[in-house]
Write a structure and sequence with these properties.
Layout: E1 3-5, E2 9-15, E3 18-26, H1 30-40, E4 47-54, E5 57-61, H2 71-80, E6 86-93, H3 100-117, E7 121-123, E8 127-134, H4 139-148, E9 152-158, E10 163-170, H5 174-185
Antiparallel strand pairs: 1-7, 2-3, 3-6, 4-5, 4-6, 8-10, 9-10
């Protein structure tokens, strides 16, 4: 099951006199990923290498390091931690000792990996849109049952006869939710896809 991050996380490390700072954050779009990278890059640093992954979209940059020694290892760390909707920037201040291509790949990938390991993660749940209609008096209980199953109330529309709800629920929870709603309404509330 893929994960995203609860918020910004940071990891600092010194490797052979070079300082590395890895920053990671959740994203919801490619524009947001690029904005995070621009906001957290340090123009005084030697290199600002980054990678982001959003479903089947991904990008990475070595920012002047030898090709394939920074961006790809950061992206590999994102995938190794089973993360999605995540952007990672690893900032390096050169310390005077060359690390070599293998050392660079280990340093960038390792910093990103440790940053993601220490982050608070949230499971990404695939949800299906469903709808239902309930009475005013049942609304609070319906919302409670939806929330207990990890679902979301996307939209609620009040009418003269009750409330029309647009929901997003995990595929495996639909049958359980249908039974719970039927029990609480004596069979009146039906889920529709």
């Amino acid at each position: 099951m893929p994960f995203t991050l609860a918020g910004l996380c940071e990891y600092r490390e010194e490797i052979r006199k070079s300082r590395f700072i890895a920053l990671a954050a959740p994203i919801t779009s490619a524009v947001e990923a690029q904005a995070f990278i621009e906001q957290h890059s340090d123009l005084n640093a030697s290199h600002n290498c980054w990678a982001w992954k959003l479903a089947d979209q991904y990008r990475s940059s070595d920012d002047g390091e030898p090709g394939g020694t920074a961006g790809r290892p950061i992206l590999a760390a994102i995938e190794a931690q089973d993360c999605d909707q995540v952007s990672v920037v690893v900032i390096r201040w050169y310390g005077g000792i060359q690390l070599g291509t293998g050392g660079l790949a280990r340093a960038y990938g390792g910093s990103a990996n440790k940053c993601l390991q220490g982050a608070e993660r949230i499971a990404l749940i695939s949800r299906v849109p469903v709808s239902c209609v309930c009475g005013f008096s049942e609304l609070a209980l319906v919302k409670l049952r939806v929330a207990e199953l990890g679902g979301l109330v996307v939209e609620e529309t009040f009418t003269a006869n009750g409330v029309e709800l647009q929901l997003a629920v995990g595929e495996v929870q639909i049958d359980t939710l249908q039974m719970q709603l039927a029990d609480l309404s004596r069979g009146r509330i039906l889920l529709q896809r």
